[in-house]
Amino acid sequence: MTDRYAVIGNPVGHSLSPRIHAHFAAATGEDLAYGTLPAEAFGAAAERFFGGGGRGLNVTLPFKLDAFEWVTARGTVHGAARDAGAVNTVAVSGERVDGYNTDGVGLLRDLEHNLGVGIAGRRVLVLGAGGAVQGVLGPLLDAGPGRLTVANRTVSKAEGLAAAFSGVQAAGLAELDAGYDVVINGTSAGVGGGRPGIQAEVVDGAFCYDMFYTLDGETPFCRWCVASGAARAADGLGMLIEQAAESFFLWRGVHPPTRGLARSLAA
Ligand code: ATR
User: Fold this and answer.
1) CATH number of the domain that 82 lies in?
2) Distance of alpha carbon 34 from its chain centroid, rounded?
3) 54: domain range?
4) For the whole prediction, is pTM greater than 0.85?
5) With 63 labelled, which of 43, 83, 97, 139 sits at a CA distance of 20 to 30 A?
6) 229 and 207, same structural domain?
């Protein structure tokens, strides 16, 4: 029987995940169907989906914290999801319920494997201190940066993350100066067409990565970084694909091919 998966969120209509997982299923020959699950509340929708035989959910805004609590009450939350208090992948098999967070793996795989940007020993700056950033700090620290600074518009939130993740330093956006090898935008400023307000010298000569993405051209952050002297900039479409690939692996035990998929999604 065809196994059923979905992405749950609000809104979820424009999610690329169904296209990505359809590509993975076709490439690996796995017999599965992957749809969207629009929901008002995570718990009721998840109960219905899994009660009807569903095997796995990807979780997007605004439900990652709800999914963490739901899985914690029924099963096991693993690794980065436990550190972050946020689940983006749920797997159900019989009585067994597991929760994971594949965002950090996706970010690291895109940076290190696809883009050839190593983190070990490098001076890394992460902009933003919300849920998206919290989900990737554990895997970033595991990659062994020489320094990891989290800077946020509201400094107290960056300080909260520095207290929770040993090895992280906190800063405000305005006080940043030069001296970073890798600058990662994890703010949601791009959603409104904006970018975090930092000085040009912060990105001068750095590799810049925007966890946000658009399918039509550059994100505002990438465009500004390149104009401000960054060595190179990339957006988060590769991260989206790689976190999906990790979810697919957790569900099916098969690593799907990801090469070339970003280009065909953007076409
Ligand atoms: P997400 O789940 O996408 O991380 P979030 O938890 O609401 O969403 O966090 C949004 C992050 O983007 C926060 O760090 C926010 O900064 P504040 O904590 O100061 O609100 C940051 N952010 C959003 N819009 C921004 C902007 N225009 N400039 C700078 N930072 C911004």
Assistant:
1) 3.40.50.10860
2) 19
3) 3-101+239-266
4) yes
5) 139
6) yes
